[in-house]
Design goal:
By secondary structure, this protein is α+β, with helices and mostly antiparallel strands. It is built from 6 helices and 5 strands; from the N terminus they run αβαββαββααα. The longest helix has 18 residues.
Length: 179
Amino acid sequence: MPIVPPTVDSFFRFEAANDEAANDLLSPPAGRRIGGAPAIELEPLHQIVYVSSSRANWSEAELGRLVTRARIHNGAHGVSGMLLYVGGNFVQALEGPPSIIAPLIHRIRADRRHWHVQRIVDRKVQARDFADWSLGFRHCRPAELAAAGAVDIRRDETIAKALVGRDGLAIGLLRRFCG
């Protein structure tokens, strides 16, 4: 059977399909497996949840680029997790092999785009809470958290203050708004 080279038309159909997928990065369908987290874990798992404050408000385009890069990195390294951006703050869960999570959190702490990185959860786990996502993502307003009865960061002043010492609330918040 002869090899048929792709046509220009087929190339543009391929590009359009990829553009649609790229535009959907901020809100992938529920249950869609994005990353390369292994089904059977060969190493112990470590889970970290942190909160941080952004030095500037991020645009949707900036958040999209951040999420895209993180999904590629996480998928290639067996990391799963969720990221919530609310009111200029990040809440993120990362889970995977300790040999990957430790340098990743070090890199995150050194990133100058945000500050006041506080660990909320730092533990070994038997199973992933966010196994279906190399990085799930949600951008929401503080009022959405309050309306859902999760955390009223207007009342609690900061999301970090609301979550410190409340591991279950932090994980539940990420599951509820990102999962």
